[in-house]
Amino acid sequence: MRAVQVFLAILFVAVAAADVQPIEPFKSYPNSCKAAKAKKDGIRKLQLNSGAPFQVFCDAKTPGAGWGWLVIQRRVDNRENFFRSWSNYQQGFGDLAGNYFIGLDLLNELTSDQPQELWVELLDYSGQTRYAHYDNFAVGNESNLYTLNKLGLYTGNAGDALRYQENMKFSTFDRDNDMSPKKNCASELSGAWWYNDCMTSNLNGLYLGGEYGNDLTGRGMVWKEWLGDNYSYKTVKMMIPLAAADFQPIEPYKTYPSSCKAAKAKKDGIYKIQLKGGEPFEVYCDAKTAGVGWLVIQRRVDANINFFRNWSSYQQGFGPLTNSFFIGLNRLHNLTAAEPQELYVHLEDFTGQKRFAKYSDFAIGNEANLYSLYKLGNFAGSAGDAFSYQRGMNFSTYDRDNDRSIHNCAAQFSGAWWYNSCMYSNLNGQYLGGEYGRDLEGRGMAWVQWLGINYSYKTVQMMIRPKN
Ligand SMILES: *[C@@H]1O[C@H](CO)[C@@H](O)[C@H](O)[C@H]1NC(C)=O
Ligand SMILES: *[C@@H]1O[C@H](CO)[C@@H](O)[C@H](O)[C@H]1NC(C)=O
Ligand SMILES: *[C@@H]1O[C@H](CO)[C@@H](O)[C@H](O)[C@H]1NC(C)=O
Ligand SMILES: *[C@@H]1O[C@H](CO)[C@@H](O)[C@H](O)[C@H]1NC(C)=O
Ligand SMILES: *[C@@H]1O[C@H](CO)[C@@H](O)[C@H](O)[C@H]1NC(C)=O
Ligand SMILES: *[C@@H]1O[C@H](CO)[C@@H](O)[C@H](O)[C@H]1NC(C)=O
Known about the structure:
Blueprint (H helix, E strand, L loop, with lengths): L1 H16 L24 E5 L7 E6 L9 E7 L10 H6 L1 E2 L5 E2 L2 H10 L4 E6 L5 E6 L3 E2 L8 E3 L3 E3 L28 H4 L12 E2 L7 E2 L10 E2 H4 L3 E2 L2 E6 L28 E5 L7 E6 L7 E7 L10 H6 L8 E2 L2 H10 L2 E8 L5 E10 L11 E2 L2 E3 L27 H4 L21 E2 L12 H4 L3 E2 L2 E8 L2
Antiparallel strand pairs: 1-2, 2-3, 3-5, 3-15, 4-5, 6-7, 6-15, 7-10, 8-9, 11-13, 12-14, 16-17, 17-18, 18-19, 18-26, 20-21, 20-26, 21-22, 21-23, 24-25
Bound molecules: 2-acetamido-2-deoxy-beta-D-glucopyranose (6 copies).
């Protein structure tokens, strides 16, 4: 009995004396979003050397940045106060999935553990996004007052608004470490930053929601090199990758021509174009069929690509640009809404004869308008006018009957078109290879005014070109 008591007492003492911190001791975590192979946005646990694990937000979706980025600061709305004290900035604050600052101590640990890059992403209120990328980034420790030690080379399209802050110490309203002889920059600019005298960026400034007045100059979330010091962005995000991220520069300086005509595409082939405010995309430009500057919106060359497709397929488009394809109703709407276009329809039969139909105007509506053929100008050409009967009609597919017939024209004619009741042309019909039987009437790629309702052409190509 006595022996047992002694044993228990010893055990108790031993446990109490040991510095037991059971923090998931068996598990070790990756040391970066990259090492975590975080290919989806979300919160992850990381661990540096043998330190305690901590949570971060890994970003994998920012256009051009690639995956593997760790978000160190983010602003998305005005719900979080960023005008905070030194100790708040040391520790970090906010909500990992929303507005937050990671904390200067952790930032120092992260950036001294491995070489770093920095990615700053800004979004303005017109929906434009720009970025600044620095290929080396390091923040000092507390005894260095968290100096912005390294910045490396800049690339990007937002401007190099952090350079003026290089080698500066961090300042908050209650710890003035800036280079201004008289001012307390943090206090005057309602922020916390690596102030010089004082700044060309202030991303921890006030969330002021766009352009603001003279009286507040510099107090917003400023990135001067892009929209000046009276503009506070809609969202801001600062990220580091810890070990090189999967950085794929998106040719940020380049803007592409808005059409094949503007691209002065003198050879047939694939070109990149870009509509105002949109992402670049590839199109096929044709320079041989009817002169330069035509953009191919539809082509049929053989039976390999199925054109009897549903609504969403026609919305998105399908088929390879170099073969039989349809550009997609969404894109076609955008193109014809961007500037006035003319339309050229090229037809070739199986004897090698070529004819065409040209319309002086061509535009289709958006999704809400059921992509209606709301503009079709005057006809000219040798193939006959098989399209005017379709003018003003909504687009129909077999699963979205928007035609004027009591029948489902798309189903009846195995196509997808601006059917009236029903049609004199059916260029998305089946590739039937020439003249076909009565039982299939109208189901081929018909252009009635030239070879009738029972003839399916060898080649069809529809093209648009800006009028001006
Ligand atoms: C801070 O960093 C410097 C080097 O930049 C180093 O000499 C110093 O020991 C560090 N201080 C602490 C407390 O880690
Ligand atoms: C923006 O700030 C400048 C000073 O930098 C000032 O002259 C100008 O009037 C301000 N613009 C607006 C819209 O307040
Ligand atoms: C439309 O067709 C595509 C493939 O051709 C298919 O993935 C999709 O589910 C279809 N949509 C509807 C609404 O039937
Ligand atoms: C069409 O334009 C809208 C904005 O005007 C854009 O959101 C959309 O992505 C564009 N669609 C295509 C397929 O280009
Ligand atoms: C096209 O669709 C709209 C919306 O449903 C409808 O108001 C309009 O009458 C249709 N047009 C034709 C020509 O059927
Ligand atoms: C073509 O269609 C017409 C009716 O439009 C029909 O009379 C004729 O027999 C058809 N020709 C062939 C070869 O089937």
